[in-house]
Specification:
This protein is of the alpha+beta class. It has 15 helices and four strands. Strands 2-3-1-4 form a four-stranded mixed sheet, with no helix packed on it. Strand 2 (99-103) and strand 3 form a beta hairpin. The chain is globular, with a radius of gyration of 22 Å.
């Protein structure tokens, strides 16, 4: 079996206590059965601490303390399990985060998620064409799917990623072309055709209903209770002030590169999942809607501060990912909006 990972994943190293948004705070941390069995056998004072801070639920999880901190996160924001028992004794979720995986027949694909601060910084900083590594691993099973559709989507994904990275046209035009392409490809495959056409370039400005995007993303279940209020404030600010696109692009010349990298990440992570249900246009819509909304928030940041840098985009993209990609409900709600009218014109 082959494991495919984006080449940039080799650069990822957890920044631990230097991270400004620790993943051991505010998240429920499930414990896999193998780790649970080991923790239950640890003796001494630390063994007692383990037993007293693991819930009896199924699945078991660590009982979060004050400010929703993991009970094994010390005052220096370092993991006591790692320190006292070793890296190999971390539970699966702590070992793997922010990595994600998807299983196909003979192929396992993965990457590092945008919801991690350091991973987001690495993803957005890329300035070369997307590539991935392949490594031989032991076979793992997967759900059934149509092999012909799988190969069709593999080819289409390559075309989409290459087109997204072709900078001869503005990024928003590329998004528009990709949306039309994915819609056409969905229609073709729904009718039994698995030929993979070329992406057609169509000049012209894509019109966006920013208010509709704000209503969509503001209607989701939020980790941050102030999120909806912030979105409304941004919409009011943007509506009142507006923005000179040329001035913004001149002052933020790397903005399109950041968005391009985010778009490629979304396509790599989500597009091929469409093979299991035969529906993939919604994954492309999610990519486009996510990029539009992230850019909107970046422009609002620019209006407020007079500048927008990499770290601003990292923060915005990371928060977006945490709110959407790590919530099945939110992810499905955004993708369900794919066939509603009014978002892209």
């Amino acid at each position: 079996m082959i494991l495919r990972m984006p080449e940039y994943c080799s650069k990822f190293i957890c920044t631990a206590d230097r991270c400004t948004d620790n993943c051991c705070i505010g998240w429920e941390i499930d414990i896999d059965e193998k780790s649970l069995e080991y923790y239950e056998g640890v003796e001494g004072d630390f063994g007692e601490k383990l037993k007293n801070n693991i819930s009896g639920e199924n699945p078991a999880c660590f009982v979060l303390g004050k400010d929703e901190r993991c009970p094994f996160l010390n005052e220096n924001n370092l993991c006591e399990i790692y320190i006292k028992l070793g890296e190999d004794k971390l539970c699966d979720i702590c070992t793997e985060h922010p990595r994600y995986y998807e299983w196909f027949d003979g192929v396992k694909e993965g990457g590092t998620g945008l919801g991690c601060e350091e991973s987001a910084r690495i993803i957005l900083s890329q300035d070369k064409p997307f590539s991935y590594t392949e490594t031989e691993i032991e076979y793992e099973s997967c759900s059934d799917y149509d092999q012909e559709l799988f190969h069709c989507l593999e080819k289409a994904r390559s075309k989409i990623i290459n087109y997204l990275q072709d900078r001869k046209n503005p990024f928003m035009q590329r998004l528009s072309d990709i949306l039309r392409y994915a819609y056409d490809l969905q229609y073709r495959t729904d009718n039994g055709s698995y030929d993979v056409p070329e992406i057609i370039e169509k000049t012209g400005e894509m019109k966006l209903d920013i208010q509709k995007f704000c209503e969509l993303f503001g209607s989701l279940e939020m980790l941050d209770k102030n999120r909806k209020k912030y979105i409304n404030q941004c919409l009011q600010l943007f509506s009142k002030t507006g923005i000179d696109e040329k001035v913004f692009n001149d002052n933020c010349p790397d903005s399109e590169r950041y968005l391009e990298n985010i778009a490629v990440y979304f396509i790599w992570r989500h597009f091929m999942k469409g093979v299991f249900e035969g529906e993939f246009f919604s994954k492309v819509f999610f990519m486009a809607a996510g990029c539009v909304f992230i850019e909107f928030l970046a422009k609002c940041c620019y209006i407020e501060k007079g500048t927008t840098h990499l770290e601003d985009y990292v923060f915005i993209a990371k928060e977006f990912s945490k709110e959407i990609e790590y919530s099945e409900y939110n992810l499905e709600k955004v993708m369900d909006a794919a066939y509603e009218e009014g978002y892209f014109k």
